[in-house]
Amino acid sequence: MEEKDAKARGEHEHSDMPQGKNTEPPHHEHTSSPLSDNPAAADRLQTDVSPVAAAAENISREVAKVVIGQRDMVELLLAGILTGGHVLLEGYPGIAKTLTAKMLAKSISADFSRIQFTPDLMPTDITGTSVFNLKESRFDFRKGPIFSNIILIDEVNRAPAKTQASLMEVMEEQQVTYDGITYEMGFPFFVIATQNPIEQEGTYQLPEAQLDRFIFRIRVPYPSLEEEEAILQRFKQDFSSSRQNQVNAIISAEELHQAQQLIEQVYIKDELLRYIAAVVHNTRNNGDLFLGASPRASLAIMRTSKAIAAMRGRDFVTPDDIRYVSGPVLNHRVVLSHEREMEGTTVEEVIHSILEEIEIPR
């Protein structure tokens, strides 16, 4: 009898004790927090990326004062400048490629220059040339329009190959070498180039080495029906586009540099690095592709996925960030095989199939 009473007391005491790890917690699984979204956050230092997210939101809002829609283009342009890259915009005439680039430049407190590429443009028209100084009896180097912070190159494929080649050194190394002297670029240095994909006459196709200098090639689509109606409503009494004067500079070069430093600290797991490497390596061993991507593409995916994560308010990269930037990073770095090109397959379709084929890290 005493044994039964003791056993009953023991069971009663055990039921009153906390159950430890097996105890059901209160129902809070819908509460969003960085730790719940990223378990590895508990084992590392947190990075406050709110300044990056706020800057991206504010710049997008300024651009949207004039440009309707094209949110992906604006987001990728911001990711490009926040990672020190350059962007190629490709799309049909009249879909706000040049306008978006100009409004983005206005929202950043930095110098801006625009270069219209033409068939008779010479390399020295871009980088600069020597001018004889009569007073000093010597040649002085006069810098060209490439010596700016944000440079818009309109219709980049209208200039011949020798003129396009003048961009290779400055886009990769951020310097111009002339007559044995090297001239460094200031910060930031961001090139936005545009081209029309359908025009063939009077154009010169960019070589692969030149295309590889661009971190993104953004294919700009037509606006939707709703967006086109909104465009008409916005400018029905503004034929002179006076709204462009309402776009304000809201971030300085120093703040932009600080944002880049924060993006460098965004966390990316080793499994995701292996995922990026597997995607790029697949392009070099894929039967649908004649030419695969180089390690420069791997670095571009890593950097821009970090930027996208920070712009969306996270201090860690997810597989979705990588998949989002992989298309614009790879679509100009790989070349279709002749068979797939004849079948009408697009580069984007092949990239999508690669992303679907490779297992996503969990």
Structure explained in plain terms:
By secondary structure, this protein is an alpha/beta fold. The protein has 2 domains: 54-234, P-loop containing nucleotide triphosphate hydrolases (Rossmann fold); 266-362, Magnesium chelatase subunit I, C-Terminal domain (Helicase, Ruva Protein, domain 3). It is 44% helix and 15% strand. It contains 15 helices and 13 strands. It has a 5-stranded parallel sheet with strand order 3-6-9-1-10. A two-stranded parallel ribbon has the order 2-11. A two-stranded antiparallel sheet has the order 4-5. A hairpin with a 4-residue loop joins strand 4 and strand 5 (138-143). Helix 4 (71-82) crosses helix 12 (295-311) and helix 13 (319-330) packs antiparallel against helix 15.
Main attributes of the structure:
Helicase, Ruva Protein, domain 3, single chain, two-stranded parallel sheet, 15 helices, globular, 15% strand, 362 residues, alpha/beta, Rossmann fold, 13 strands
